[in-house]
Write a structure and sequence with these properties.
Length: 269
């Protein structure tokens, strides 16, 4: 890397950004403690003295890398979703964008924020933690809003926020860009896992109550139902004894009619 240009110039700012990105890559590979200032200078193509033209100390370099990572996060994840009115859609978009950010190989600055979060001390640590807390508060507020609107089941917003973060921010530990799960599929699976157990189903319309029928109307309906049930059935046959009596009576009536009178059988005319 050529000798440092004049401080404050566009070239200086561009080379300063290149130093941050190169140092971030090296720290991700070796760890903050293992990566020496000389290692970082060599990776940047600078002498140690040349590196100090861009940084004040190794811890200051780490702070700048983390601040740069937070800038990237806010630009690519937080700011694009702030204008989404629906709280659930806002949260879903936020998770998806965050997953894509932490799975991209070039987002080393974001990975350092996650991996070296306890390395900073004093005011530097407070500065980064304040920016992280703003993200947590954004998530809590969005979950609380979704709950008030009946879009998700009742949950503690802080628990939901940290469950959200726990799923997303641990990805860098196990995800491999060249693995069998592509980033798009990973995002879809995690969105389904998280929101599938959280979002409430839309309310089912309730049928209007039916007014009770008047007594006369009930009798009429009952009669119609009975008539419909018996329609088409053969007539009910009487018991055998009654059938025999009816047969004899019919025969007597027919015999009397044939004789022209109604006398008893065997009687004279």
């Amino acid at each position: 890397m050529p000798r440092a240009p004049e401080a404050g110039s566009d070239v200086h700012r561009e080379r300063h950004r290149a130093v941050l990105e190169t140092a971030a890559r090296l720290i991700c590979e070796q760890g903050y403690e293992a990566a020496s200032v000389q290692d970082i200078a060599d990776a940047c193509g600078l002498t140690k003295a040349g590196l100090y033209y861009y940084i004040r100390s190794k811890e200051d370099l780490l702070l700048e890398i983390m601040s740069y990572g937070m800038d990237i996060f806010e630009e690519r994840v937080l700011l694009p979703v702030l204008g989404i009115a629906d709280p659930v859609e806002r949260l879903r978009a936020c998770m998806e964008k965050n997953i894509h950010l932490v799975t991209e190989q070039r987002s080393k600055e974001v990975t350092i924020i996650l991996h070296e979060h306890e390395t900073l001390t004093g005011a530097a640590r407070q500065q980064i933690n304040a920016r992280k807390k703003r993200y947590v508060h954004f998530l809590e507020a969005s979950f609380a809003e979704a709950m008030r609107e009946g879009r998700i089941r009742a949950v503690e917003p802080r628990v939901a926020a940290f469950a959200f973060l726990g799923m997303v921010l641990w990805i860098y530990k196990w995800f491999r860009p060249d693995g069998k799960i592509p980033a798009d599929r990973l995002a879809a699976e995690m969105l389904d896992l998280f929101f599938g157990g959280l979002v409430t189903a839309p309310a089912t319309p309730t049928a209007a109550p039916v007014a009770p029928a008047a007594p006369g109307e009930r009798l009429r309906r009952r009669g119609q139902a009975r008539a419909a049930a018996t329609a088409g059935r053969p007539a009910r046959r009487p018991p055998p004894r009654r059938r025999a009596q009816a047969t004899r009576q019919a025969a007597l009536e027919a015999l009397g009619a044939g004789r022209g009178g109604g006398g008893r059988p065997g009687g004279s005319a």
